[in-house]
Amino acid sequence: MRLEGKHIIILAEAEFEDIELFYPLLRLREEGARVSIVGKEKEYRGKRGMTTKVDAAPEEINAGRIDGIIVPGGWAPDRLRQQENILALIQSIYERKKLVATICHGGWVLISADIVAGHQMTSFAAIKDDLKNAGADFIDEEVVVDYNIISSRTPADLPAFMREIIKFLE
């Protein structure tokens, strides 16, 4: 139980990439972390048909009481980046030097939260230019750790992504 006492939130929105939400959820719980799903609705359906119930709304989260946030990919990030309370939450977590992790298209949310400039990051290839245009240094590797931002590209990179997240949280 390496992460006992840690509280991590995972963002959810319609059409999240199923495995990019559930793999981190299960791995973190396996290590003893408390994991909450955060979104504005009570339940969401992923791109592949899995559903997840939401534990809390973004405005119910106190950034000072959590240890990190994970932004899964899929089409959900396009909706998440339009929600001011989500962007404020990410900024607050980032400013507290706590974990901000993203995979696939999740980088869009970090771009809209205005926290990527000057950081090395990776993502799904389709948003590479978006990251670069926002001031990030794009690196095409399975996982990139820079300061308190951990980023990854695709579901195939989830094992490396989670190894780095767990290491950061320990």
Which features does this protein show?
6 helices, alpha/beta, 10 strands, 170 residues, two-stranded antiparallel ribbon, 32% helix, Rossmann fold, 6-stranded mixed β-sheet, single chain, globular
Explain this structure.
A hairpin with a 5-residue loop joins strand 3 and strand 4 (51-53). The chain has 170 residues and is of the alpha/beta class. The longest helix has 13 residues, at 18-30. The protein has a single domain (7-169), classed as Class I glutamine amidotransferase (GATase) domain (Rossmann fold, 3-Layer(aba) Sandwich). Helix content is 32%, strand content 22%. The protein has helices at 18-30, 76-80, 84-95, 107-112, 128-133, 158-169; strands spanning 7-11, 34-38, 43-45, 51-53, 68-71, 99-103, 120-121, 137-138, 143-146, 149-152. The chain contains six helices and ten strands; from the N terminus they run βαββββααβαβαβββα. The strands form three sheets. Strands 2-1-5-6-10-9 form a six-stranded mixed sheet. The chain has a two-stranded antiparallel ribbon with strand order 3-4. A two-stranded parallel ribbon has the order 7-8.
